[in-house]
Recover the amino acids of this structure.
């Protein structure tokens, strides 16, 4: 507005002086035409100077002023409206980010509060019991340690998710052998694999991928951990790797609980657990694994999809670009 106002003032000054100059020139021309063509041929003609046409001048100036005021008002309103729309658009991602952070904090505190409350109640009940014995205390401490371990897992998962969600996530991209990543991930989940006597079937591959070693290992661990968790004892998990146009596909197939059709659209949401998984006595977890996996895939400009039939098993497919994104 300041720029427009400054220019308008300059335009007004220039035009006003131009109008005055034009009016003077016109008067001068008229006077000369009369003097050059006297009514009496050969006769001398004296003419008093023509009066200044102040009325016409004032009218022209006020017209210029009005036009400039109208133009400036239009600029004021349209720039205001445009500024409002543009600032809204620019600030929207920031607003979304703040909303997302608030949701994250409230989800996380909700998940942390439940086990903490149950721990607190168990301690209070124990203290109120006047007949408490040492074995009772031992049992309570044992149960509490299990709960604290779960809380530790939850806080670690929250931290991992927060790290991958952050805009300046620490990653080190390099060329990696997929079979090495698989070997490392399988090694990490070996204790639960052995516990459930599950067989992991994976063929050796020489395919390589461009990515972050820790991120991709975490991603495969999450998928394998779920596959083991939701599979019956002595079942098989298949891992396959194949190349497509510019991408590699890593598929993890289990023959376990499967996922109900109604749960499929939500399983990548933070803290989402399907009904079957929520019965915590059967499966431990907080519904964070797949949202972390999805974040890791998207950091690699890849994707992760699932096909599943309840009661029969699930296949998770990770699609990653082979080469570094331009
Ligand atoms: P959780 O810690 O509950 O396993 P995830 O985010 O890893 O959290 O998974 C979200 C939900 O998706 C799980 O609660 C479970 O219902 C479902 N799910 C994930 N992987 C499998 C699988 N391989 N088989 C069956 N259900 C699965």
């Amino acid at each position: 507005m300041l720029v427009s106002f400054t220019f308008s003032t300059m335009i007004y000054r220039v035009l006003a002086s131009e109008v005055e100059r034009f009016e003077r020139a016109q008067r001068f021309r008229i006077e000369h035409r009369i003097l050059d063509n006297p009514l009496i041929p050969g006769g001398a003609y004296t003419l008093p100077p023509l009066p200044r046409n102040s009325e016409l001048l004032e009218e022209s100036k006020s017209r210029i002023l009005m036009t400039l005021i109208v133009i400036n008002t239009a600029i004021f309103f349209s720039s205001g409206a445009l500024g409002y729309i543009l600032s809204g658009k620019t600030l929207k991602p920031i607003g979304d980010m703040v909303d997302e952070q608030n949701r994250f904090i409230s989800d996380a505190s909700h998940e942390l509060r439940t086990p903490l409350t149950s721990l607190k109640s168990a301690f209070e009940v124990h203290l109120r019991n006047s007949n408490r014995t040492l074995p009772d205390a031992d049992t309570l401490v044992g149960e509490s340690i299990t709960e604290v371990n779960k809380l530790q897992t939850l806080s670690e998962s929250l931290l991992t998710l927060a790290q991958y969600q952050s805009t300046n996530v620490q990653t080190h991209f390099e060329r990696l052998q997929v079979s090495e990543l698989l070997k490392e991930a399988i090694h990490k989940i070996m204790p639960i694999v052995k516990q459930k006597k599950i067989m992991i079937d994976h063929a050796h591959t020489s395919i390589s991928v461009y990515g972050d070693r820790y991120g991709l290992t975490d991603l495969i661990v999450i998928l394998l951990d779920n596959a083991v968790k939701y599979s019956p004892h002595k079942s098989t998990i298949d891992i396959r790797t194949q190349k497509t146009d510019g991408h590699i596909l890593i598929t993890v197939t289990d023959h376990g609980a499967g996922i109900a059709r109604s749960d499929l659209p939500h399983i990548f949401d933070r803290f989402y657990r399907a009904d079957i998984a929520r019965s915590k006595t059967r499966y431990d977890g907080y519904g964070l694994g797949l949202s972390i996996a999805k974040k890791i895939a998207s950091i690699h400009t890849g994707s992760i999809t699932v096909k599943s039939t309840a009661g029969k098993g699930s296949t998770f497919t990770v699609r990653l670009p082979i080469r570094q994104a331009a």
User: Anything to note?
Assistant: Strands lie at 173-177, 199-202, 208-212, 236-244, 247-254, 303-309, 313-321.
